[in-house]
Design brief:
Layout (H helix, E strand, L loop, with lengths): L15 H7 L2 H4 L3 H17 L5 H20 L11 H13 L1 H4 L7 H37 L4 E6 L2 E7 H26 L1 E2 L15 H8 L3 E2 L3 H6 L2 H28 L6 E2 L18 H24 L12 H25 L2 E2 L1 H8 L6 H9 L5 H18 L8 H7 L7 H4 L2 H6 L9 H18 L1
Parallel strand pairs: 3-4
Antiparallel strand pairs: 1-2, 5-6
Length: 461
């Protein structure tokens, strides 16, 4: 009992099962750098404010840096029986410095210490995820530049709808990533607030300088309410929400790649390094990476739900339930980074089958809207043009022909306004080229999208 930091009030040794149940070091040990950096700043402030002797502040800081070096070189291993990373480091410091080490926790509670560490840790993690998103967006743009003329069918309801280009299609995912990056930036802003100095819940009687710690640790602001400082986990929930939306985008992209890899589409082929085979069917080449991303999306959603349910009934201020925040947000981050780091090289090495895309675009009457527009440009109301084109499609189906192959006589039988130039208007290339409206699939419109995306990524980076 005597080796517990909170010993004194209790007369019995804690049950070993309770100690194991209570312990979090198996998952919060990853925050050791954050804990040490936060403690260094706290010790420096204590010394500068005269709350502890400057000489003791210097010894504490040196001791903490030695512990950091020993952890990172493998000389010091985490003690599995320790309650958490915070107690482990403080106990190790006390072991090395004696009473001087015990002064570190002056004007600080584990409640605001934990709140600080998770914010410090998540700041770095947000930056890491953002860097991956930027790399993926750049990879998409690079592919798009090669395929501004690669015609493919665009879909609604998974039915061939209108001709577009492969560049136009995948750039939609680059736009999603730009929004994901924006959400990460917004989350970072609300994460980058200093809770230290809130103590257990009601601040402290010591003359601390929270703004100094804020400056030392690079936070944007000090949290203004001590109750909120120790009990807020909005930033964890917001990050989990942002990661969930990001995973939704990755899952949608993955689903399309899964479809495109199938023999029914055969629009793309994954590099052998990013596919697997079957244990029984030698012909199989499975897109397991994308399937796992699709599956892990549900796992990240679960982490978000864990955080929401964990927090929904908690009174102010700190409650032990909040220890569950770390496993959830760490799991979400680990899976998102793993998915991004695997998806990026898979996409970069993916082969695009232009011919199959073009062949698919030639079927399904996806130039029917352009046929109707042809009549509209000759003065016919759109609804009448729509009906005439629908009649032509019906004739094509009965004759087993496409609109391009249907004789001009059949066109004229439906509407006298048709001339032979209709075949120029409904060619797939013309259908794409004529869609020059901002955001459309015409090569010039796509190049404009690319330029704007690169400009925004340049500003972000």
């Amino acid at each position: 009992m005597s080796d517990m930091m909170w010993a004194g009030r209790f007369t019995k040794q804690i049950d070993e099962r309770v100690n194991d149940f209570n312990s979090s070091i198996k998952f919060d040990s990853r925050m050791y750098r954050s804990d040490i950096f936060g403690s260094v700043a706290h010790a420096q402030m204590l010394g500068e404010c005269g709350i502890i002797e400057s000489s003791e502040s210097e010894k504490i800081i040196a001791g903490l840096k030695d512990i950091l070096d020993d952890i990172e070189t493998g000389k010091l291993e985490f003690e599995p029986s320790a309650e958490d990373i915070h107690m482990f480091i403080e106990a190790e410091l006390t072991k090395r410095l004696g009473n001087t080490g015990k002064r570190l926790h002056t004007a600080r509670s584990r409640n605001d210490q934990v709140a600080l560490d998770i914010r410090l840790y998540l700041r770095d993690e947000i930056k890491a995820v953002k860097a991956c998103c930027i790399e993926l967006a750049e990879a998409i743009i690079s592919i798009a530049k090669e395929h501004t003329l690669t015609v493919m069918p665009g879909y609604t309801h998974l039915q061939r709808a209108q001709p577009i280009t492969f560049a136009h299609h995948i750039l939609a995912y680059a736009q999603m990533l730009i929004r994901d990056i924006g959400r990460l930036d917004d989350t970072y802003k609300r994460t980058n607030a200093l809770p230290l100095g809130s103590c257990a819940l009601a601040g402290t009687t010591y003359p601390i300088e929270r703004e100094r710690v804020c400056e030392l640790l690079g936070f944007d602001e000090v949290m203004e309410n001590s109750l909120d400082g120790v009990s807020d986990r909005d930033f964890c929930i917001e990050l989990a929400s942002t990661l969930s939306i990001l995973m939704m985008h990755l899952s949608r992209f993955s689903e399309e790649i899964i479809l495109w890899c199938s023999w029914e589409f055969k629009f793309v082929e994954l590099d052998d390094a990013y596919a697997t085979g079957s244990s029984i069917m030698p012909q199989k080449k499975n897109p397991d990476v994308t399937e796992l991303i699709r599956g892990k999306t549900g796992r990240v959603y679960g982490d978000l739900n864990t955080l929401l349910v964990m927090m929904k009934g908690l009174p102010l201020a700190y409650n032990k339930d909040m220890q569950e925040d770390k496993e959830a947000i760490f799991d979400a981050l680990d899976n998102v980074k793993l998915c991004l780091k695997t998806f990026i090289p898979m996409l970069k090495t993916m082969r695009v089958n232009k011919e199959n895309m073009r062949a698919a675009a030639a079927k399904g009457f996806i130039n029917a809207t352009d046929c109707a527009d042809y009549l509209v440009k000759k003065g016919m109301p759109f609804r009448d043009a729509y009906k005439a084109t629908g009649t032509l499609v019906h004739i094509c189906i009965e004759k087993g022909l496409t609109l391009e192959a249907l004789p001009i006589e059949d066109y004229k039988a439906v509407c006298a306004s048709f001339e032979s130039d209709v075949f120029d208007a409904i060619s797939l290339e013309a259908c794409v080229m004529q869609r020059k409206s901002q955001g459309g699939p015409a090569p010039d419109a796509v190049k404009e999208q690319i330029e704007k995306l690169e400009e925004r990524l340049g500003e972000i980076s």
